[in-house]
Amino acid sequence: MLRREHVPTIMSGIVTLGALAGHFGRDVERGVAKAVGIVEAARRDGVDLLVFPDATIGGYLGDLRCPNPAELPPALSPDGPELAAIIAAAGSMTVCIGYTEADGDRRYNTAVCVSGDGILGTHRKVHQPAGESLAYAAGDAFGAFDTPVGRIGMLIDYDKTFPESARTLALDGARIIAALSAWPASVTDRAARLPADRQARLFDLYDCARAAENQVFVVSSNQTGVMGSLRFLGQAKVVGPGGDILSTTRSKGGLATATVDVDGEIARARRVLNHLDELRPDTYRALCAPTPASSASSSPALSPQAESGVPDLS
After folding, report:
1. pLDDT tens sequence across 67-80
2. Domain limits for position 126
3. Residue 293 — very low, low, confident or very high, per pLDDT cuts 50/70/90?
4. Which residues contact residue 69 at a Cβ distance below 8 angstroms, ignoring those fewer than 6 apart?
5. Mind listing the pLDDT tens digit for each residue in 37-76?
C-alpha cells in the first residue's frame, strides 16, 4: 500500500467539508462496503474532505468500563484489504476513517487519513477513558500532516476533551482538525432524550471550544445507534474558526457539510486577535506540575469511581 508522509496541497480556496454520523458495527465486510458506498456518494456530491466516525471498520467497544476480551473489535492491518478499499474509493477526495489497528501483539484505536494516493496520516488515540486501556494500547503523539485540502490533524473522541491535544495540532500548522468519535450518552446517568444528555452538551461544547480557541475548522464525526451497553450521540458537525456550528446532523444519522474558504476564514478570524501568535508560554505553569488539590493524596473523600481507578462518566 502506498504511504505518503507529506503531499502538496493541490486544492486551494473553497472546499466542501463533510462530517458523518452513522452506525457501524462488528461486521467488517459490511462496514467496508457501507463506507465505500458513502465515499462514492460524497465524491459525486463534491465533498472534498469526508470524516467518518471512530471505529467505522469493526465497531467500538460494547462496554466502556469493563470491556469483554472476547468481544473486542477485530484488529486489522493498515496494509490490509479493508483500508485498500477505502483508498481505491477515495480517488481525489481526502477521507479520515477509524478502525482498530493491529501492531504485533498490540491493538490501537486508530484514525487514518487517506486519498487515492494512499495513507496521508495516522493517529493513535492518546487519552483513554474508563476501561479502554484494557482493550487498546495508548498512542503517544499528536501531529499534523499535509493533504489535498490543506494541513490536517486528527483527534479520536476523548482526545478532544483535553485542550492541549488540539493546541498541539494547531501549533503544528493544522488548519482543519478531524475529530473522529464513538461518543456515547452518559454511562451513569443517561437522559431519556439524547439532546438533553449531559454528554451531548459536552460533545458540542468541546467541538466549538477547540475550534474557537485555536481559530481552526473542526470537522467532527460520531457513531449513532447502540453497541452493547452504549448508545451513541450522533451530532456530527462542521465548526468554523470562530466556534460557530456551520452544519450539523443533530442526534440523527447523516452527513453534515459546509462549503468554506478555509484559508480565508481562518485569516479573517485571526485578523485582529491571533490566539496562536499571542500565546505566553513563559507565564504558564508546567502542564505536568501537580496542583495543590491533585497532590493532596491524603484526602479521605474518594468517590467509588476514584477508588476503583475509573473516572465518573456521568
Report:
1. 999 999 999 999 99
2. 14-308
3. low
4. 134, 135
5. 999 999 999 999 999 999 999 999 999 999 999 999 999 9
Q: Does 4 reside within a domain?
A: no
Buried b (16+ CB within 10 A) or exposed e, 162-186: beebbbbbbeebbbbbbbbbbbbbb
Enter the pTM of the model.
Answer: 0.89
CA dihedral 133, 54, 276, 202 (to 10 degrees): -80
* CATH number for position 240: 3.60.110.10
- Whether 314 is covered by a domain: the verdict is no
Contacts of 132 (CB under 8 A, 6+ apart): 61, 64, 67, 109, 158
- Give residue for cell 456550528: 245
Q: Grid coordinates in use for 47?
A: 465533498
User: Collapsing DSSP states into helix, strand and coil, what is residue 121?
Assistant: strand
- Domains contained in the chain, number: 1
User: Which residue's C-alpha cell is 465515499?
Assistant: 39
How open is the CA angle 123-129-134, to the nearest 5 degrees?
85
Adjacency order of strands within the sheet including 237-239 = 145-147, 150-156, 176-180, 217-220, 237-239, 245-248
Q: Are 12 and 48 in contact (CB under 8 A)?
A: no
Can you give the length of the chain in residues?
314
